[in-house]
Structure formats: structure tokens, C-alpha cells
From TrEMBL:
Keyword Cell division: no
Keywords: Nitrate assimilation
GTP-binding in keyword set: no
Cross-referenced InterPro entries: DMSO/NO3_reduct_chaperone, NO3_reductase_chaperone_NarJ, TorD-like_sf
NCBIfam families, alphabetized: narJ
Name recorded for this polypeptide: Nitrate reductase molybdenum cofactor assembly chaperone
PANTHER family according to UniProt: NITRATE REDUCTASE MOLYBDENUM COFACTOR ASSEMBLY CHAPERONE, NITRATE REDUCTASE MOLYBDENUM COFACTOR ASSEMBLY CHAPERONE NARJ
Length: 206
């Protein structure tokens, strides 16, 4: 459990917006990963980039890839529910999980299904409840992982590490993910499509 907590906390930090505080944590993250069974290799490219690249460049790249790109959504339910009416119910369930933990969870203005937040919740608040959310949204994690692999982003290693803490092997491609999870297109679109349109059958698009 300790190794998984370290993985989740390190992933939470490394998938969040890079700032001076994260840069200061890099040595701590590297040391913790090294002490937890050599997990550092999955995070090495991201951490090395943080340590060797001007912060402004790292931030600009992060905004481009995670804030402006629909391909790398960090909100778990967006992969499965898109921008649909039922997504509000899903987000409410995330909030209930946080509330039921008995701890005050600061969402920092993010939606409650924001992956770094879920990871930090699992690492520091309620391991079992947080891990249950990750298992429930395994398909979202795997689709994000595949998108990061396709685009050659170093964060793919972090998603591999997170998925490696969950039961079963990772699917090899999107078809396997959809088959495993029984995914289909959103039924009640009210705006945007899911982040990667290629994940859905052509007839399901709006």
C-alpha cells in the first residue's frame, strides 16, 4: 500500500500544473520513488524535464497539451460521459466520496473528477475510496495513457505506473479499452464531444 500511495502522490504532483512549488519538490519526489521499489523510471522523463527546462517553457507546454488540447483530458468522467447531462450526476458522486471521507477536500476550483485530485485523495485521505474511483474509471485512465503514448508525451509513463497499481493488465489499444468497459457514445450531448473523437464510433458523433 505504501508503494501505491507514493505512486499516487507523485503522479498527482507531476500531472498538475507545473509551478515553483513543484520544482522544489522534484528531489523529494525522486527520493520517494527510489525508496519505493525503483518507481522512478516511469517518472524520470517528466522530472528530468522539470529540472532541466525553464519553468516558463514547461508551463507553456503543459497548457498546450493539457489545458487547450481535448486529447489529454485530466477529468476522468469526460472520457466516458463527454459533455452530457448525466455527467453532472457523475460529478456529484465524486463529491459524495470526498464528503463521506470526513475530510474537507479543497477542490481548488477544479471539477471533482480531476485526476490529480483523485490521486492525491487516494494517497493522503482515503486510500480505499480513492483507489475504488481509479478502478471505476480505469477505462478513462487507459484512454488517456494511449493518447499520451500516441503523442509521445513523457507523462505516458506516469499513467502506466498508475494503471499498474490496478487489477489486470492494461489493454493494448482503444478497441480493447472500449470492449473491456462496454463504452459507447454519450447519449445526451449538450456541447463538446468527448476529448478524443477517435474513441467513439463514427455513427455516435454529433
Amino acid at each position: 500500500m505504501r508503494q501505491q500511495r507514493v505512486t499516487y502522490q507523485a503522479a498527482s504532483w507531476c500531472l498538475g500544473y507545473p509551478d515553483g512549488e513543484l520544482l522544489a519538490r522534484v528531489p523529494l519526489i525522486q527520493a520517494a520513488l527510489a525508496e519505493s521499489g525503483g518507481l522512478g523510471s516511469a517518472f524520470a522523463d517528466v522530472l528530468d524535464g522539470l529540472a532541466s527546462t525553464p519553468l516558463a517553457e514547461v508551463q507553456a507546454s503543459y497548457v498546450q497539451e493539457f489545458d487547450l488540447s481535448k486529447r489529454h483530458a485530466l477529468h476522468l468522467s469526460y472520457w466516458t460521459d463527454g459533455d452530457t447531462r448525466r455527467r453532472g450526476e457523475v460529478l456529484a458522486r465524486f463529491k459524495r466520496v470526498y464528503r463521506d471521507s470526513g475530510m474537507l477536500v479543497n477542490t481548488r476550483g477544479e471539477l471533482p473528477d480531476y485526476l490529480p485530485m483523485v490521486l492525491e485523495f487516494a494517497a493522503t485521505v482515503d486510500f480505499e475510496a480513492g483507489r475504488k474511483l481509479l478502478i471505476q474509471y480505469r477505462a478513462s485512465l487507459e484512454m488517456l495513457r494511449l493518447a499520451l503514448v500516441d503523442d509521445g508525451l513523457p507523462h505516458a509513463g506516469i499513467l502506466r505506473a498508475v494503471c499498474g497499481t490496478l487489477p489486470g493488465a492494461s489493454p493494448a489499444d482503444r478497441q480493447e479499452v472500449m470492449k473491456m468497459a462496454g463504452l459507447g457514445p454519450p447519449a445526451e450531448s449538450v456541447g463538446l464531444e468527448p476529448y478524443d473523437p477517435r474513441l467513439l464510433p463514427m455513427q455516435g458523433r454529433h
